[in-house]
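User: Show me a protein chain along with its predicted structure.
Assistant: Here is one chain, sequence first, then structure tokens.
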Amino acid sequence: MTSSFEALLPTTERALLHRVAVAQSEGRAPSFVAGVARDGAVVWSGSRSCVDGHAPDADTQYRIGSITKVFTAVLVMRLRDEGLLSLDDPLEKHLPGTGVGEVTVAQLLGHTSGLAAETPSPWWERTPGTIRPELSDVLGERPMLHPVGRVHHYSNPGYTLLGSLVEAVRGVSWEEALRTEILEPLGLDRTTAQPVAPHAGGFAVHPWADVMMPEPAQDLGVMAPAGQLWSTVGDLCRFAVFLAEGDDRVLSSARVAEMRVPSAPSATADWKMGYGLGLQLVHSERGLLFGHTGSLPGFVAGLWVSVEDGVAAVALANATSGPLTATVAAELIRIVAEAEPRLPKPWRPLPAAEVDEELLALTGPWYWGTYAYGLKLGAGRAVTLEPLKGAGRRAAFRALPDGSSWIGLDGYYQGETLRVVKRPDGSVSHLDLGSFVFTREPYEQGDAVPGGVDEAPWRGL
């Protein structure tokens, strides 16, 4: 017997609304709207406003700033999937004449290009795009601030280059590619380059007094791929579901998962914040959150996804500063995940076609020297190799077509090949993982242990 738990509990909805109300009040936002998606569906939205009886809803547009970059990154990943470019291609190959052509597509996506964070003066977010009509106007005389590929340095001009790259390869405008390749397939009909009613107006709230004034809403021109878009809580929640699950009409689940792999060289095992290919990454107490934040004068936005919890959240406000939309979006995920923990999928045996005696015989303990590991079999003939005690190098592996080798998917062994090595009589000798030998016994006489095994048996003091 199964039950549907798509709707949130009233107590959970009350907690979500309370968090939004606090954010609007403490952040002094003219309005604040948020939404939550769970297991592929939008399950809640709520808002608060300074105008009684006139709160926005999930269909009200706000400007989303740099969340636009995620859309641009998806367009670039589609070009890669179609074989029109490689992420390792230098920009010059497809967009010559920029003066920064040695930078690769991947480095632009992950903000390791070395490019400056902003354009030359004046402040591009508050001035019309017509004053910088060419890429040379965006890059300026000194576009490079850091060695290419060495440092993570967030760059708005970098995503302007990516938008121009899309236009050069596709032969259509960035806006046209966005509409036909992402917005229409995913049904995001309230996400647009220009505001479409109903939409919020952007405001600056005085830092020392409870007064405000309108902010200009500029058309960013060539800078549009870095921050132009307007969208709604409803559309962004649906976009978040796509980022979690993929959609073969746009990008497969494997490709959107690739976007959230850290790309910056500084990412280490204990990193807390990072950047993938167009996605910001945060390690929270609940695990990995990925998504993006955004701001333009008059607006702030936050979008986060937790695949582990099956929850995504979006928060939007129409104030230049003050409302903590990114923090609130993360806390909305926590509220839902803690109040209504995700139900695990029912355990089911593997399909019979995926299991054979030879594969089952490989499962169980293996030894790398004296380190004990366990090999587990998963769906699709995938395997996992993990230490049996203590910290160690755990990794998941995808089966290769030859039936006796696997490719590492994560961790230290990502991209490395795990293969079964057999003796002349056909029996299994050992596992080879990037030259590391795993045997059935620790340093067993006669095993293929590099450097050999002492002739004397194991002995005490």
